[in-house]
Amino acid sequence: MVEIEYRKTRIKLGDTDLVYEPAEDSFLLADAALKEAKSGMHILEIGTGSGFVSAVLLANLKEIRLVATEINPHAARCAKANTIEVIRTDLFKGLKPRSQETRFDLILFNPPYLPTSKEEKVPGWLNYAFDGGISGRETLNLFLGEVKDYLKPGGEILALISSITGLDAVKEKMIDLGFAVDVVARKKVSFEELMVVRGKLL
Fold first, then answer.
1. Which residue in 71, 127, 149, 151 has the most C-beta neighbors within 10 A?
2. 155-169 pLDDT, tens per residue?
3. Cα–Cα distance measured from residue 105 to residue 127, given in angstroms and rounded to the nearest whole number
């Protein structure tokens, strides 16, 4: 089994033909999350994949409560092998909205952000890791439309996007939904710039 080490933790990757292998976007979100998260927080990661980002947080922060969701059954099994408490569901569907147990201080999401036509879809479960719809923002917009129901007052989200996703469109939608928005991390990678956008609930 393939394993990688990052920031005091070792991650089992399983079958990378079925599970997204952590890459520059994963590392950028993990680093940004480590800066934002604090001991005692209740944290949710949507679409955890292998469990990489959540595992990094658990290895480096004390007394956090963390749960994750993942739609891909192969990725969910991989995350569980990395000791992540994971619910196999699509985005927030397996969580009860507006309940005390599912209100979080911090919610993380590395959505599929590649603009994808029907002809460009990847066969099988791995498509969920890449396919952002025609705009590259379809899954992110679904997430943003629901996320407030799962945040504590003053809670924050961290979302990984790409310059090809359209930063201005993402910021405009988040502001319209009642978030204060800023970019907390950036990294240039080949043809795109990766960014972590923070939204703080006003």
1. 151
2. 999 999 999 888 999
3. 29
DSSP assignment of 57-70 equals HHHH-SS-EEEEEE
First to last CA, the chain: 44
Cβ atoms of 167 and 187 closer than 8 Å: no
Distance (Å, rounded) from C-alpha 193 to C-alpha 30? 16
What homologous superfamily does CATH list for 3-201?
Vaccinia Virus protein VP39 (3.40.50.150)
d(CA 190, CA 23): 13
| Residues contacting 173, CB < 8 A, separation 6+ | 141, 144
Q: What pLDDT is attached to residue 102? A: 84
Cβ within 8 Å of residue 15, ≥6 positions away: 74
Give the integer Cα–Cα distance in Å for 193 and 71: 26
The domains of the chain are located at 3-201
